[in-house]
Amino acid sequence: MKIIMRLLSVFFVMLVLIIFTSCEKSEIIDSEIDPFSNEGNERNMIVVISDMHLGADLDYTECKDNLDALEKFLLKVKESPNVKELVIAGDLLDEWFVPATIDPYQGNDQADFVQRIAATNKGVIDAFNDIINEKKILVTYVPGNHDLTVTEASVELILPGINQVRDPELGLGTYSPIGYPKIAIEHGHRYNFFCAPDPFSNQDIAPGTISPPGYFFTRIAALHVAQGYPAVEGDTLPIVTLNNSGDESQEMLFTYWEVWEWAINYLKIENKFDENLIVTNFDGFTETYSVNDLVPYQTTPGGEIDVTLFNGIQDTWNQRQEHNRVPISIPTDRAIAGSASESELSEQAKIQYFKNLNSDVRLVVFGHTHVAKIESSLDHNGQKSIYVNSGTWVDHNSLSSTKMDFVVITPQSDDEHSQTYVKLYSFKNEIVTEMASDSVRL
Question: Given 72, 178, 286, 379, which residue has the most CB atoms within 10 angstroms?
């Protein structure tokens, strides 16, 4: 899940190195140079942003200080005579980052929740609507994991007329801009064990739920932040050891426990782990849960491992992948262990698109990890292909020195020597910085 990716310190040094070594060039552009200009009259540029994480309450939202900059950025997009499309690649609205002890919907419903987001972030929502209503730039939204259960109707309620691209299954979508089938834009969470929709777990507890374990983890992480980053946990998790039966399901559950064990010990909270503190009233859940309800446990060392919520999740990953339209199956052990790795999502872009014999996509844009980057590789035909991550707009990005990131794609012309250009920028401090660029002939 996304918050795991933000906080796993074991990856911090590696990720910083990736940021700087994956870029073909890095330079600060004079602020007078317009990244939304193609130096011509054609309206053909595609702008991609993601991970704004707009919240309903500024007391705990992840995007507060950057709201003014985001509003100014959107105004610059609107004023450009060359931008054709603005694509929101997920996590526009945040239903996940709410401290565990707070009722997310405050006793109301999702429609009320998104309207509170619109009121709290009025300047940004108005800026989006100004672009939509002018009808010169197509604004497209695909879902992320933090807005996984936000319905089409709820988005339409605050952004009327926005183009929503969704899979038939709630919580997912992949978009190819008009006329460019070799470009694919999605959030990227469908490949993550902790973040992909899960319509199989907890159905006896919350009928119809699709919320994965990442939702609950993020609620705990938000509490950790709300409590001022406690240095000492209020409780200690019991140790779980690998079951000695050799059962594959038990081995997978142990790997699942390892992720939870690290996360709970890293994101310390002041509460006891048997305390019912995670208020739900969300996505079919009605009860209030404890940390112990989420973390696998064991009554006898080396004996059977069990878990209360998401019981059996280690056995349904292949079903989830089929449901979530994952083209190339990811082994369960890899999916669980790689859920905390930023580089694993980069690899999945290559596996699911570039190495997929049934895919001719050669430019992929994901969000999700909050690590803005460009990487090139060869596809299954030996052709150059490009993966881009669109970064984030959250106030504090612990995985990267950049934030307020955006991608600009300038498609090739009919000239056989023309290239599709991809540029990655930051709008930090309202100064445009070009972090990386590349090109490919699609």
Answer: 379
